[in-house]
Structure formats: structure tokens, C-alpha cells
């Protein structure tokens, strides 16, 4: 009987540790609350040394990254489709080499010290090829990234490593 009680205790302890593993420190939570004081339904996670808050604002899913010092690193807003793009970026995409590809997702990424980047994820029907296209707000294609066989999260390391 003692073996079962000890096993149950260890299981409960492990479950409680994992439930709080992604809770950010107070400095991160404080910065987040200053930026988004009315945010609710926040889910926290960790990504490559950053704390990431996921929530919905004005109908858009947002992911906001903070470093361990509580400084904002970037915000990703899922725009879902080309319909949400400015005419400049939309025209750049439809006149570019990937215009005939299927758009899977459109994301705006904002930074504290850089201009925003619009990332359009495209693929082809019946082929396992996926690319991310990185546009400036002025419609200039900065780069493409093959994400066919990788987990293509747009975390801070995507931008800081290049």
C-alpha cells in the first residue's frame, strides 16, 4: 500500500511541476501587462530561452516573446490570409514568383527596433514543398526560407540567426 501512495505522490508532484514550468517570472509578466493590460486567456510557453504569451486580441491570434530580463523581443500576429495585407505587399506577392502557389498562412512580425516583417507561407498542391516569404512593409521581398521539412515557428531565433 505504501508503494502505491508514494507512487501517487510522485506522480502528483511531477504533474504540478510541469504545470508551472512555463510560468514566466514577474518581470516578464509585468512587461506583458504594460503592453496588453486587457489581455485575457493567456497561455504561456517557452521557446529557445524566451517566454512566449499566446492570446487573442481583436480577433487575431498573437504570440509575444520576451527575454528572461523581461524585455519585449517580438510580436507575431496571425493575419491568416492575403486579404489582410496592405495593397503594396499584396501587389508584390501577386506579381512575384510564388503568386501561383497556395497561401497557407500570413503573419505580421513586429520588433522593438526594426520595421515589421510580413511572412507569407506558401506551398504547392500535392507536393510537400513549403516556403516562407519575408516582405518589408514597402513590399520588398527580403528572403525566402524553405520550411518543407521543419517546424517553421517564427520565433526570435528565426530573425536573430540570419
UniProtKB/TrEMBL annotation:
Domain called Putative beta-lactamase-inhibitor-like PepSY-like: residue spans: 50-142
Keywords attached to this entry: Signal
Signal peptide as annotated in the record: 1-21
The protein, known as: Putative beta-lactamase-inhibitor-like PepSY-like domain-containing protein
Organism: Bacteroides faecium
Gene3D superfamilies: 3.10.450.360
Keyword Signal attributed: yes
Amino acid at each position: 500500500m505504501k508503494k502505491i501512495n508514494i507512487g501517487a505522490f510522485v506522480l502528483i508532484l511531477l504533474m504540478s511541476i510541469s504545470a508551472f514550468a512555463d510560468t514566466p517570472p514577474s518581470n516578464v509578466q509585468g512587461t506583458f501587462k504594460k503592453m496588453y493590460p486587457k489581455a485575457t486567456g493567456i497561455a504561456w510557453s517557452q521557446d529557445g530561452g524566451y517566454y512566449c504569451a499566446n492570446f487573442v486580441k481583436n480577433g487575431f491570434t498573437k504570440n509575444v516573446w520576451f527575454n528572461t530580463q523581461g524585455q519585449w523581443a517580438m510580436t507575431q500576429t496571425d493575419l491568416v490570409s492575403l486579404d489582410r495585407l496592405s495593397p503594396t505587399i499584396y501587389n508584390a506577392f501577386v506579381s512575384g514568383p510564388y503568386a501561383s502557389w497556395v497561401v497557407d498562412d500570413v503573419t505580421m512580425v513586429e520588433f522593438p527596433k526594426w520595421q515589421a516583417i510580413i511572412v507569407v507561407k506558401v506551398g504547392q498542391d500535392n507536393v510537400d514543398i513549403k516556403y516562407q516569404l519575408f516582405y518589408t512593409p514597402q513590399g520588398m521581398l527580403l528572403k525566402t526560407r524553405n520550411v518543407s521539412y521543419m517546424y517553421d515557428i517564427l520565433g526570435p531565433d528565426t530573425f536573430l540567426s540570419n
